[in-house]
Amino acid sequence: MSLTSRRIVVVGSSNTDLVVNAARIPRAGETVLGESFLMAPGGKGANQAVGAARLGADVTLVARIGNDAFGAQALEGFAREQIDTDYIVRDESAASGVALIVVDQTGENAIAVAPGANRLLTVADVEAAREPIASADVLLLQLEVPLQTVKYAARIAADAGVPVILNPAPAQPLDAETLRLTTVLTPNQHEALALARPFSDGNDSLRTIGRRLRDAGAHNVVITLGNQGALLITERQAQQVAAPKVKSVDSTAAGDAFNGALAYALAGAEPLVEAVRFASLAGALAVTRRGAQPSLPTRAEMAAFAETVHPPQTEPSPK
Catalytic residue numbers? Predict the structure, then answer.
């Protein structure tokens, strides 16, 4: 991959993750004794920004945090990662976002989020960052901040010819314009099913759902499949990109590692299929370590990891 400067703007959330590891995820009304506790920085926007920065991108984060201890810790962390924080607003009226996460012994998780200041990120906050968005190589978005704010950022980027990656998590209905503004839509399997509900009978294959999302407006669709890699649907092809086989410890930020790496690769003008392959490698490495941002790999770690696994293969999917 080219090592030239890759400018990525991320508009999204910043949280603090409070993580309990337990034998299993509790059922409703049940208490399960945990085995360990970890407090770590998180939030999909912040995670993806850190993921891209650790790979070597020049990253700007547009976000809102509270004027509290969690917010201060987040800013310190972004500074260590050399992320541009000029467009992060300290909100006096709301607390910083917090996520409560339980991870079971297989690495699966259950998450509850109190958005706090994230839900107050405004169109005006994005407008203040118009210049870096319009001059970026890639704009990376998620849905833990208001949809109208996400859409406004996507419109600025699209008008300037900047590719837009939208990770539609947590899933919510997306209108046709938002999909048309999206260069690469990156749902997981559950999010893809939810997004396709208005025009699917519920029995469609993931390939058909991906095509339906393209028909609805998204230029390209990448459905992440966990340890099975990702399904790439473009105008010309449907391909499954395999992921390396690893022992999962914590899947909390696997999708964020994937999206940060995808943005990094696309910012370097890599072909989409190669970018998905690279992103799948990052996601696989992330699940082998605990925590959200602590699990996100550097470029050097990615290179070392790639030498220990069989390279993921890309295979044409059936029509």
Answer: 256
